[in-house]
Amino acid sequence: MQENTKGVLYAGGAYLLWGLLPTYWRSVDTFNPYEILFHRVIWSAVFMVILIVVLKKWGTFKTDTKALFNRKKELIALIIASIVIMVNWGIFIWAINNHHVLQASLGYYINPLMSIALGFIFMKERFNILETFAIIFAAIGVLYMTISSGTFPLISIILAMSFALYGLMKKFVNIDAIYSIALETIISLPVAMLGLFLLARQGEQHFGMNHTSFLILFAGIATAVPLIMFTAGTKRIPLSLIGFLQYISPTLILLQGVFLFGESFSMTDLLTFLCIWTGLILYSYSKYMQFKAMKRKKLLS
To answer: In which compartments does the protein localize (predicted)?
Structure first.
């Protein structure tokens, strides 16, 4: 099998799994969202440690982790990444289990455009004309929803901003992707353990001998496997193709919200999504043209 085909399968599979996560989180919604989040962190950390041991990379992991502690800026970036991804997970789980699936979907549609904005602010990147119009259309969509429904899509914005900020922070961390994911969950582990302890003190912890507790054990696999597949995919295919595949996830989330969970899709929602989709088409076309230009330049050099 060619590397390009493998890359599409890995990255596409990652986005497919991410897109199906709402159904999984709904299957464990007898737990409150905070408890689900804390278990997600704990079992993700457990799974990643087991994976590193199975791959016989524990020695390298310890060496690279010690070296990271001497690179303060990278360490701070990783800590920030672990915080914002935990916020992202928590908001997503809360949204899914409180009937805001469409807002969750909208958040991940906005995410690429939010990444452009962060690149402009922090990385001194500049927009081309198509990317400028893409951001304008996204802003129009958010503004229209706010004015028409009287509700600012806060969930969507937090999801988009937190995941974009997570991606930005990961640009500053020079460490193997698997080690990075493991460290992110390990850094968040004390917060998750403390959270479960406080829930138990309040009598709100439901983990025990029941069906939902068995399902929650797979939270680590549901979290780590798509991340690993995504990493494997990005190494094999161009970013322009990744940019196209990433819309699999929010599209599946949107379809589940409307057809599986019965959320209403109003005219306001339709016009908002049309603005966002128009922005994404412009963004995708811009990236495609950039990729073609780079390819042509390589052929000529």
So the answer is: Cell membrane
